[in-house]
């Protein structure tokens, strides 16, 4: 069913996730906020003012903007994202947080270019692949190699920050778009093997990445060292049981669990509202995935189909990786849980992407 903004179900799911996120940030961030800023609701207020409110405006605006507009600005938007990725390394412009160069400081405001890049690369690949046509996409020299060049440029800049988790989301999302565009399975398999080899090299040359793999393989080997975060996350989730210890009653958020409002917020959620609450959250993401896939399948053209595929893949892959990392199914990556984790930049671009998806839904026949 449609509303003036687009698909009603998608709008309800995203609204529910937003409310879910604000409640969990208010609860999970109380001690962390008080410790860092002497204001127990600092993270809640900051997320509301700099994330939710501008995010709602972005969703509304982009849901009204014909999605074909993005085809016209795909190239300059992509190069703008690349420029921003370079600017994080410029002294006085970029800022280092916890030893990583991922932020641009604009006076009192900070901005994370990699979040913009996720959306920019989806738009660019959708426009570029549509213009190529199926035969050129299947060609090694006109399809696979240029695609690898685009991903390689982004990989170089993002790994210099470094931000392995974000790069993983971008690569997997790009592969999904390339597959739907008609790429040969043999080309995708070849790139997958190459990617695994590159990942192995990256793990070997950086001790912190290797330590994350070790912590994933055996969390109990060094519970006070490299395995500390995953052990605290597992303790939080395990303590919650089926119904949880009660909203606001988490013990792990009392400075035991690192980043309780960031990439570890799912662990606090699991502790406070239990498996039941976690299953409700996962169900919301499943419904979002189903609506996104339906919008993509019924999009009126290839550009809309590829953009809808990319946006849906981005959100679901990122949610899957974050949740899996918090229950030790994959190594910790540090990427946020979409719509739930604290982070204004991430939320604004996610809401912008949902606005575009809603506009595509208005042009799609979802009754099929």
Describe this structure in words.
With 368 residues, the protein is mostly helical. The protein has one domain (2-362). 69% of the residues lie in helices and 5% in strands. It is built from 14 helices and five strands. The chain has helices spanning 8-28, 30-37, 42-64, 69-87, 113-132, 134-137, 140-159, 164-181, 185-205, 207-217, 228-240, 265-297, 302-326, 344-362; strands at 2-3, 6-7, 94-97, 100-106, 109-111. The strands form two sheets. The chain has a three-stranded antiparallel sheet, with helices on one face. A two-stranded antiparallel ribbon has the order 1-2. Strand 1 and strand 2 form a beta hairpin. Helix 3 packs parallel to helix 14, helix 5 (113-132) runs antiparallel to helix 13 and helix 5 (113-132) runs parallel beside helix 14. The longest helix is centred in the C-terminal third of the chain and has 33 residues, at 265-297. The radius of gyration is 20 Å and the shape is globular. The chain starts with a strand and ends in a 6-residue tail after the last helix.
């Amino acid at each position: 069913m449609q509303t003036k903004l687009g698909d009603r179900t998608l709008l309800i799911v995203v609204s529910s996730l937003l409310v879910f996120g604000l409640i969990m940030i208010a609860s999970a961030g109380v001690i962390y906020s008080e410790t860092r800023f002497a204001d127990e609701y600092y993270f809640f207020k900051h997320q509301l003012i700099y994330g939710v409110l501008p995010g709602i405006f972005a969703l509304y605006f982009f849901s009204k903007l014909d999605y074909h507009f993005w085809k016209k600005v795909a190239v300059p938007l992509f190069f703008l994202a690349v420029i921003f990725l370079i600017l994080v390394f410029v002294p006085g412009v970029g800022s280092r947080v916890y030893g990583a160069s991922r932020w641009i400081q604009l006076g009192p405001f900070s901005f994370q270019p990699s979040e913009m890049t996720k959306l920019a690369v989806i738009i660019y690949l959708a426009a570029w692949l549509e213009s190529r046509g199926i035969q050129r996409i299947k060609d090694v020299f006109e399809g696979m190699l240029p695609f690898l060049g685009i991903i390689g440029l982004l990989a170089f800049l993002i790994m210099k920050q470094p931000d392995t988790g974000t790069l993983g989301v971008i690569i997997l999302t790009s592969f999904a778009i390339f597959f739907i565009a008609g790429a040969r399975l043999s080309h995708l398999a070849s790139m997958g093997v190459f990617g695994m080899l590159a990942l192995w090299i990256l793990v070997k040359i950086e001790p912190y990445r290797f330590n994350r793999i070790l912590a994933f393989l055996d969390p109990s080997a060094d519970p006070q060292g490299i395995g500390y975060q995953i052990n605290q996350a597992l303790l939080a989730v395990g303590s919650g049981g089926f119904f949880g210890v009660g909203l606001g009653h988490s013990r792990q958020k009392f400075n035991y669990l690192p980043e309780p409002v960031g990439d570890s917020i799912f662990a606090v959620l699991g502790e406070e509202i239990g498996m039941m609450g976690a299953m409700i959250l996962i169900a919301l993401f499943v419904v979002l995935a189903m609506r996104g896939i339906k919008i993509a399948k019924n999009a009126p053209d290839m550009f809309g189909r590829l953009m809808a595929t990319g946006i849906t893949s981005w959100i679901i892959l990122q949610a899957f990786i974050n949740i899996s990392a918090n229950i030790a199914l994959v190594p910790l990556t540090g990427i946020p849980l979409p719509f739930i984790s604290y982070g204004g930049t991430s939320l604004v671009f996610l809401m912008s992407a949902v606005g575009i998806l809603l506009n595509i839904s208005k042009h799609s026949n979802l009754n099929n």
